[in-house]
């Protein structure tokens, strides 16, 4: 039976409820100085506000080495009454000091598998997904290496793989490597940030491959997110792909938090976007985006898969 691996244990996929499919309670990168998400109290308040708005599950895509706050995630999940899915994985090279890249690159697949099956560090908190990054339109050597490690870890565990696409580009190259070269089932791949590259024809081609498509980031004012979101979703819903769409907030800076910053933060998905989505697409479609699709996208057999 497939299950979703949360920081408090494995759940039947049907128990997830309303899900923020891509967000961050904790995140720290040298690329965002002074904007670290490293305040446990602020993270707890953000989670509580998400729950108060009707949310039930938060999927945190923060990967290895970027301040995941693994020791805090179970406490926040319990205190806020929310399911939290943590991630293993590796981001773009620019996010890491040279010494971390040198020490970690040779053993990425091993790290991913260990964090998925045994736990992150000595916390005992198991990751429930793999988050890696593509490149800008094409895959550089670092991206190819991390994606290949993600594929190896997927085949060992069955874990879903979520992809950061730089400015939303390069998703076709990612599918070519993961699915065509490495044999990962497309239904185990979540293509992130596609709202940042609002090419409807490309989105339809990607959906036809069978992957999940994530539109995440209303908290990011410097990207084409909300202005293009509805037209992107409409093209895919009209094309018959409503069952492959996911929504997330992708709150990556302290400034973007609702509880302690300028917002809109995690609750905005439900307080701001969801009512508009219901008016445009109807309750049934919106339930698929927030409830049914995440239950499928983040579920795994947790015993590995057979390469096709």
UniProtKB/TrEMBL annotation:
Q: How is the cofactor bound?
A: Binds 2 divalent metal cations per subunit.
What InterPro entries would the database entry show?
A: Metal_Hydrolase, Phosphotriesterase
Pfam families listed in its UniProt record: PTE
Signal peptide span: none
Binding, Zn(2+) 1: 22, 24, 131, 250
Residue positions where N6-carboxylysine is found in the record? 131
Q: What is the designated name of this protein?
A: Phosphotriesterase-related protein
What species was this sequence derived from?
A: Kribbella voronezhensis
């Amino acid at each position: 039976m497939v299950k979703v691996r949360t920081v408090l244990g494995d759940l039947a996929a049907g128990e997830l409820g309303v899900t923020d499919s891509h967000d961050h309670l904790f995140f720290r990168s040298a690329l965002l100085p002074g904007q670290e998400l490293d305040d446990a109290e602020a993270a707890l308040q953000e989670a509580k506000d998400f729950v108060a708005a009707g949310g039930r599950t938060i999927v945190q895509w923060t990967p290895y080495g970027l301040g995941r706050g693994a020791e805090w995630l179970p406490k926040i999940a319990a205190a806020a009454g929310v399911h939290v899915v943590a991630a293993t994985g590796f981001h773009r090279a620019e996010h890491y000091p040279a010494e971390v890249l040198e020490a970690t690159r040779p053993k990425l697949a091993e790290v991913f598998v260990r964090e998925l099956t045994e736990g992150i560090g000595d916390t005992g908190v198991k990751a429930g997904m793999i988050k890696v990054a593509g490149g800008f339109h094409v895959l550089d050597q670092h991206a190819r290496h991390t994606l290949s490690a993600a594929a190896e870890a997927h085949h060992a565990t069955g874990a879903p793989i979520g992809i950061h696409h730089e400015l939303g580009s390069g998703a076709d190259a990612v599918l070519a490597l993961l699915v065509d070269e490495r044999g990962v089932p497309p239904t185990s791949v979540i293509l992130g940030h596609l709202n940042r590259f609002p090419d409807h024809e490309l989105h339809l081609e990607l959906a036809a491959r069978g992957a999940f498509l994530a539109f995440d980031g209303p908290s990011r004012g410097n990207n084409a997110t909300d202005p293009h979101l509805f037209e992107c979703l409409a093209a895919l819903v009209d094309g018959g792909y409503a069952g492959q769409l996911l929504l997330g907030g992708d709150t990556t800076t302290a400034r973007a938090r609702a509880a302690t910053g300028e917002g809109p933060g995690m609750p905005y998905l439900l307080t701001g976007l969801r009512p508009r989505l219901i008016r445009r697409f109807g309750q049934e479609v919106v339930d698929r985006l927030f409830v049914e699709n995440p239950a499928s996208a983040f579920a795994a057999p947790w015993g590995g898969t057979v390469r096709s």
